[in-house]
Amino acid sequence: MFGLWSFLPASAVLLSACQxxxxxxxxxxxxxLEASERYVAGDARPSxxxxxxxxxxxSLSDQRVAxxxxxxxxxxxDLRPILVEASGGLALEEVVLNRLVESRCASEQIVIEPSxxxxxxxxxxxxxxxxxxxxxxxxxxxxxxxVRSARGLGDARFDxxxxxxxxxxxxxxxxxxxxxxxxxxxxxxxxGPRYRVRIITVDTARSAGEVCSxxxxxxxxxxxxxxxxxxxxxxRGGVIDLVxxxxxxWPVGLRKSIEQLAARGPGSISDPIALDRGYAxxxxxxxxxxxxxxxxxxxxxxxxxxxxxxQERLYMxxxxxxxxxxAGLAVLDPALERSWRQRRGED
Length: 347
Fold this sequence. Notes:
The protein is mainly alpha-helical and 347 residues long.
């Protein structure tokens, strides 16, 4: 949503740290993950004596009192299965990425300094101000606290998030290229024309031809979109967000067709446009030009920063997905495995 969070994958992965930390003691390590890591690394499975020791330690740990309700004790044995079901997959994902990113950073001799963590925190607040969500740094700080509260980011998780973000950012830096073409595209996205259109999508060329024929006979576009379109915008009569010809998230064919309609003026209707899946017919309702567009050179440095941030988010997403896909994780606890599979969209 906002700068610091916007690089996350659709699964809302929280990326992990690169800075070396003291090795955790055996009691501090999440035992299921530790065992799976030993297995994936090719070490022998835990011996029977190891398993017996682990079971005894786990049993003692489970009986520790975590809370009291009047005179009734709530132990970790009561809480653990519920916690695993509620957020075990997310927690495991964070810990796995902690290890993977830390390992990748170590192999590339990347060290995360305290100044890197401060920069990540400042970057988030700056993004709130730049996007108009916060009026200034003080309000940005207050909003940060609200975001942390809403996302359950206490001190430990928030510090880990900053470290993970900083590590991922450093790992992808060699791929980031701020070219003149990318800066020009960013300028057009911000200050170039936008088009207000309505759209009808159908599955086949034949259906697209039939829609065009009905429009030519005078049927109203919005009513036809509501009846025939396969796009979610049918509920709004085909209305979609403003389209910029510089926005690569829209299909190339759609953008080109809209620019051709702009040359003819509002009210123009396109021929069928081939998409990856199906066909689209578009009507141009309005050309929206910015009220004020400063010269590109006057804001070049700002645009270069935007381009850099956008590329970093893209490459960080890709790296996070790649690391998880290649992890070879073996989840040995059945309940945790179910939560993990649900987290990964495998159930």
